[in-house]
UniProtKB/TrEMBL annotation:
Enzyme class, spelled out: transferase
Name of the protein in its database record: Guanylate kinase
Species of provenance: Luteolibacter soli
A GO molecular-function descriptor: GMP kinase activity
Cellular location(s): Cytoplasm
Length: 202
């Protein structure tokens, strides 16, 4: 049996990365790694589904306990991925999709856990341009003008990191984006280095 793939996806707010990740999980192609955050839930968000919503004190206690595979401060809030959300699934041959920022992605790449290093496939979702990114953020209707301005500023910084990733998806039409996004995962499943001898003989 092959080991699971850790499909790590980054990109600025409004790039469409979260929609791609959640659609992949909804179709049963991978399991979504639910992140922890200290930000307040948006309307309709549920603890344990979109995020594990923690207080700053709870988050810091889990950092001290070594529970996180990666964690970072983004837009003034803490975000992190629990080891328990990833490592066991990969060992069971389950593909895991992660939606994380560039700081967290760098920590995952630097991880010394061999199963993580072998499983990792990293993709940066790049918005077409800054004007389109701003339009998408305003179109959400979930953030104040002040938060949108902060996200746009951070997005410009994040976009400078795309060369650190093995793959890049230039965002365009949603259906075409998703077809490319899914095809990368399918291609990685066929890579010989991920297959056991039994798989090769089938």
């Amino acid at each position: 049996m092959r080991s699971g793939i850790l499909y790590l996806v980054s990109g600025p707010s409004g790039s469409g990365k979260s929609t791609l990740c959640r659609r992949l999980a909804a179709e049963g192609e991978a399991e979504f790694s639910v992140s922890c955050t200290t930000r307040q839930p948006r309307f309709g968000e549920t603890h344990g589904k979109e995020y594990f919503f923690l207080t700053v004190e709870e988050f810091e206690a889990r950092v001290a306990a070594g529970d996180f595979l990666e964690h970072a401060l983004v837009h003034g809030n803490h975000y992190g991925t629990l080891r328990s959300e990833v490592i066991g699934r990969l060992a069971a041959g389950i593909d895991v999709v992660m939606d994380i920022d560039v700081q967290g992605a760098a920590q995952v790449r630097a991880c010394e856990n061999e199963s993580i290093r072998l499983a990792l496939v990293d993709l940066f979702v790049m918005p077409p341009d800054e004007d389109e990114l701003a339009r998408r953020l305003r179109g959400r209707g979930t953030d104040s003008d002040e938060v949108i301005a902060l996200r746009l500023s951070n997005a410009i910084d994040e976009m400078h990191h795309w060369p650190e990733y093995r793959f890049r998806l230039l965002s365009g039409r949603p259906e075409k984006d998703y077809a490319k996004f899914k095809s990368l995962l399918f291609g990685e499943r066929m890579r010989v280095s991920r297959l056991s001898k039994g798989d090769l003989e089938v």
